[in-house]
# Entry
Amino acid sequence: MKLTSIEKLLEDQLKDLYSAENQLVKALPRIAKASTTEGLKEAFTSHLEETRGQVARLDKAAKILGFKPTGKKCAAMEGLLEEGKEAMEAEGPDGVIDLALIASAQRVEHYEISAYGSARALAEQVGQSEVVKLLQESLEEESAADEKLAGIAQMVMPTVEAEAVT
# Structure
């Protein structure tokens, strides 16, 4: 793709996000299954539903802008999910594995927060207020997911520390 304008850059960014979110839709059920902390399983399961909604919003944004969101593979998400797979396949105490899954998931969330923030800024620049609203909604969900994961990590850490002492 030639990036000849802000509009073309926005299209490229939305295609990248669309690929990223679709990769995540496929991965989240496996990540939830690998979790042992009930709150963490629930967080991954509920975020799966949010992620499906984000895919729908990206579809809508692409329709507004007049392009199909397919045709690009997000290499960054592919790499982040590969790191998450390492955490799922690791051996160790359940709490430590859950913390590894949380760390991996937070890297994903931070990537998405950055990507949605950048795309939203581009949409603002070209006056696409409806697209801005769609991207802002997803950005807020990603930020909330990150905060939720951080809170779960704070609850899991004392149990891991207690296990290590015994």
Notes: The chain is about 85% helix and 0% strand.
